[in-house]
Amino acid sequence: xxxxxxxxxxxxxxxSASAGSGKTTVLIARLMDLVMKDHVSIDSxxxxxxxxxxxxxxxxxxxxxxxxxxxxxxxEEEIAxxxxxxxxxxxxxxxxxxxxxxxxxxxxxxxxxxxxxRIASIMDNGTMVLFQQKALQEAFEKQYQLQDPVxxxxxxxxxxxxxxxxxxxxxxxxxxxxxxxxxxxxAWLNSLALMYKDKQxxxxxxxxxxxxxxxxLMVEVTRYEEMLTxxxxxxxxKYDDQVKKHAIVQQKINAxxxxxxxxxxxxxxxxxxxxxxxxxxxxxxxxxxxxxxYARLRKNILALEDTQLEILFTENEFMQDIRNLYPFIKKLxxxxxxxxxxxxxxxEKQKVIDFxxxxxxxxxxxxxxxxxxxxxxxxxxxxxxxxxxxxxxDVQNQLVMLICRENNVFRVGDxxxxxxxxxxxxxxxMKGLIDHxxxxxxxxxxxxxYRSKKMIVDFNNDLFKRLMNIEGFSCSYAKEDDxxxxxxxxxxxxxxxxxxxxxxxxxxxxxxxxxxxxxxKASYIANQILEIKERDHRKWKDFVVxxxxxxxxxxxxxxxxxxxxxxxxxxxYGFYQSNAVQVILSVLKCILHPHDDISFTAAMLSxxxxxSTMDLAEAKLQKEKTQSYYSWFxxxxxxxxxxxxxxxxxxxxxxxxxxxxxxxxxxxxxxLHTTIQEKTNLDLxxxxxxxxxxxxxxxxxxxxxxxxxxKDAQTAEAIPIGSEADVVRVMSIHQSKGLQFPVVFLWSTxxxxxxxxxxxxxxxxxxxxxxxxxxxxxxxxxxxxPRIAMEHKKDKEELxxxxxxxxxxxxxxxxxMHIVDCILDLEAYHQPLTMSSVYNRNGYTSWILQTxxxxxxxLFTIKEIHRLWHSDVQEEKLETYHPxxxxxxxxxxxxxxxxxxxxxxxxxxxxxxxEMQGSDYGTMMHTMIEHLGTAPWSKELIQQxxxxxxxxxxxxxxxxxxxxxxxTDFLAMNQGNIYHEMPFMVKDEDSILHGYMDFVCFxxxxxxxxxxKTDAVEEEELKQxxxxxxxxxxxxxxxxxxxxxxxxxxxxxxxxxxxxx
Length: 1061
Fold this sequence. Notes:
The chain has 40 helices and 25 strands. The chain is an alpha/beta fold.
């Protein structure tokens, strides 16, 4: 199947690639097949990935393959062709989707009238948070000024305190983010209120809401039936003498028929009537008080009945609430528009863009002027490749559809690994292509795993065939997903997957410990890593610990520190909260406000000044009550206090970056008192200070104010290690996607936190907005049909995503897979895995144990831990500081030669008008020539193009362009493939020739080069000035295209003449 995926052409190919099936290898092999076998130039291929790392890896592997091909090439033509492809790799369209969008904007920004300075400045996360806060303030101020009663009532609905609009602000921001994932955000936002307008009957509601509402009722009834059936079985098996109690259960089961019939007909009135009837009889208590299963089932049945009774309003009540909510939904959408407009204005004013702008500006450009740009890309790209297609959203998919042909898209993905719902990824896009194939479409399944040992492969097949195929869920594990091993080595040295069951209560009672389950789990995992490392002589880097959330990383960090196990843990949001950064920021605050006792105390207790709490306590006792610590220590200075005073004095005269350097050197803080992680964080803080200074003329106060405003934004710690560092890695399952490790420990749990749905209003990309109904002023709250439908959809989607996250986790291991959790009793898991148990959110531990305890397998073993373990503290590896060593071996100088550095540089002074210097004039004319298209050009076309580009032309300029467009030689050169501002880089013995050529035309056997010059000199002088520059162009193209004739020329815009060189 891999070969088929590589060689099938003239089709839209969708490759469904399970974990470890070699999808990256297939992508590279297909690229090589296109380039080498089909002679498709790399410039004619668009390959889009989801991360820069993936794009760089693809370029790196492609370059390696081309280098190998170059070594075996035999003809000059073949060598030249491969050399051209190697030269093109760095500028090829192998990039992230955002990078490709940015390239569209950079090339065609003028179509939308964008400022070129703006598209060169992409906001960082901190700046984005600042702008969004200001935009929200602006949108809300507008509403407060209007004093619209609907808005004021909406504020009351979101918060009991009128002055607190935080919840409403968050809703507006979330709604705007969701809108940005749509290809037409404005149209989507405008559609939201229509879902609530003039709806009289349940069937009048949008289909998505209607279907999800009844699906929710069906799921609850199915769970109800499962539990009742199990209690019925318990009576038959254990309590057959309890005839009366059993009869109540049977009566409920018989009554289920009417409920199910009503739901099949989607008859809400009949369902409501039938359910109200069935709950009159209450499930009796267990005949055996020790029967935990019966007690659990009864409790869950009663809870389900209570939940249903709480929401079974009449149809009239439901629909009246929906109609009443219409003005509030409409107002919320209006505020969202105001916010989006304010945010967009701020970005335009500050000349910046964000990642959403990249996608939407690119879409707007592709759709402008009847799709002219889209047509150009459609002509250009012979093949479009999309990696990780399961994570695409509507905007990204729309972008591909705008530029593709009917049969030239190659998509690779795996629905089972779609785990980015929080980024609005839509696995349904991939599922739709699989289920609804057109005449040009083909789906190929990669059914071999090349990563994991056979036992791990078979374990995953068994687990996910059961888990992902439970009735009532959209995800599936089809027969095509059932993979086999790919190489013989996977059959050797297999060990079963091991579930480590820590009986925590038993251990704590025996040992008399007061310790949390998480601390025990972390300690046990560390112990097992030490044990396996010593037993199997493994390296630290062979191990990874996968956790579901960032909180568990802290538990692993603590135990690894205690045992001196080398590790790398990328803790999200950790940068501004990291110890070293906190220390430096505290001292900076102290420098700015020395009389602020909190900042002063933090600075004094830090390693920079090393005062003790006793020192400060003594100062507290001796100083005046209103006197600051700084004031007291100024009168009673200690050794080193003068450094602080010097810094305070210098704060007005030094840049922030200079102050940081001074702080890093106090008591050799940077070198002696920080870990490698902290050093890297301090480097990043220094970089942020430099970036701040480049953009702002203000000093320390403004820098600290900005930090304070953005410190809660998502800023991860800087990464201090390379990929090959010998350390244990602890990462979230999301971070592990695409990676593999010899030994994997999965931190499992027996409970998943349910979505609480506390927010007054929630949103969904398909169902829109769902508010609760509220009676003011008493704030009585009721649910609504859209709310029930949306909560169910989100609950179901999250559970399906959890299944896929577990799949990602259990497919990372190459050799050993260990699953660790604390449990009370294994007997509780001896029950089938059903829809009810999944909706009960019992977690990965339940899913795995229920599957394999009910279906015993040699693939899976359980290791019970009843006694406390002991771990030896590892010998700490001390950091050694070495002086930098200089390179001592022979060197060979490679010159970097640009075309503009060649030839005569002592030009006579030439002055244009005061408004435009020579270089600006030349740039303007080059831009016009590039965008006018194929010559000749009319006066009207020239003026129209200038207007589009916002360029002001004089009559002389228009006449100059008309004469160029009518030049006989230039017209002849317009017959072929034309490139403007064509970049080149080529090695010529010990030199690298590189630069840009103004105009290059490729014809069958000849390549024409034209360099446009504005110099006001005669022909011979022009030749003398630029012959070496044109000669270098000639040499570079001759190296790349040895069989072509190269014809360089200068076109003088001053003389209106083509001059051959």
